[in-house]
Amino acid sequence: MVYEILGDQRESEDALQEAFVQMWKRASTYDPVRSNVFTWAVMISRHKAIDRLRSRQRRSHASTVIADEFGAADQADFVSGREVTAQGEERIRARAALEKLPEDQRAALHLAFFSGLTHAEIAEQLTAPLGTIKARIRRGLLALRELLEKP
Amino acid sequence: MIDERTEELAALYGLDLLEPAERRAFEARLEAEPELRKMVDDFQETAAAIAHAAPPRLPGVGLEARILEKIREDKIVALPKPNSANVWLPWAIAACLALACIGLYSNYTRVRTELAQAVSQNELGQVRIAALGSKLTTAPEASAVVVWDPVKRRGMVRLDHLPAPEPGRDYQLWIIDPNYKQPISAGVIQAEGSSAAMAFFAIDQPISEASKFAVSVERTGGAPAPEGPIIFISK
Description:
Largest sheet of chain B: 8 strands, antiparallel
Radius of gyration of chain A: 16 Å
Radius of gyration of chain B: 20 Å
Distance between the termini of chain B: 48 Å
Order of helices and strands of chain A: HHHHHHHH
Number of strands of chain A: 0
Strand order of the largest sheet of chain B: 5-4-7-8-1-2-3-6
Oligomer: heterodimer
């Protein structure tokens, strides 16, 4: 995920290091009632990566790359059989759920999650009105949650 | 009742998409509206699944060691909790790191082994991390991790994605030490239907290094010796 945001191995590892140090510092604030550890760790790591991306001032380039790779990401290889651990299965389930979303919602969510753009910038990127983009993000998250909750 | 506009703000906030002024205004509402906070938490939980869309990629060799080195070099101190759980922080952190690694990296076994080794060589000293194998067919996503200090004879257990026990039942943690005829109770784990449950425990009697851990379903309040089915056990 961090690499997907930053597109650079060294910088991704630096961001991941910052994220884990923050997890160390903030471990006592982790509340298992509010979120599971995966969500907590993902959100801290994503935040660190997005911070770096925004400070790079390369938003336009990065979002273009992501948009270009979006189709490819959908068809990316799943983890191999020997890597199918509990998390591998979770990954497959999440990808299957994402693929079931309407394309406009999926594109909005991908940009929202990986690009570091604001909602206004996402609207510009996808050439859609701001209100439409906000609605796609909301509806996309609601639909994704419903899909993930299905057994 | 949360209206659609507020739900939209919650979704955008959960993804860190709001402009600074919007964010500040929304955070003021979050303080006062627990229902809204819950909605944001749910959106973030859902959004975290989008991370799986990124192709799996392993970090470079030694990243885990560099992270632990950084923590040690900078003498970074974890924020204390305002209660007696402070002494358990290293265990909680170790468990978080272990579980986060499981989530963020694809090669669970390798990372867990490396992390355990790295941790054992650093300030967490003698702490051991054990991922318990599930025997549950009804909850395939359920997981259990025990972080254990055999010298101080204390530790913590964390259960994830485990449904609440049936009425009249509790989950109970056991230490199986070959030097004792009966497994030693490490206490009951309160799992009240939330996705995660965590408990700290301490043991009075000496425990051997060859000990294993297990979780069973017992009567409410726990039993002096295991009576119910074992649902997790370490290898």
